[in-house]
Known about the structure:
By secondary structure, this protein is of the alpha+beta class.
Amino acid sequence: MFKKADIILAVTLLVLGFGVLAVLKGLSVPGNSVAVTVDGVPFGVYDLSKDQIVHIDSANGHNTMQILDGQARMTEADCPNGDCLTFGSISQTSQMIVCLPNHVVITVLGESGPDAIAY
């Protein structure tokens, strides 16, 4: 059924996949703010250390982002599928929430370096 080479290839691909995942996880650091863009245009930058609710209204729809205990999450979205509500909370520089129908992107920013975005 499976040849020895097939099994070796599958195991090698699994090990490489987990290795890449571990490297990416190791590169992410806790963020200090989140940037919100709508249609690729900056909407605002919000401090993760301040609990707040942000209403994101645009021509495409309405979203609500909540920042609580250093984490941001999407709590409301009037898009048809609501996939952005299932992303959960984000707080690391390698994380983002995307609402494609409403063209909203929330990205965690670090202090400086390649993760920082000037707004």
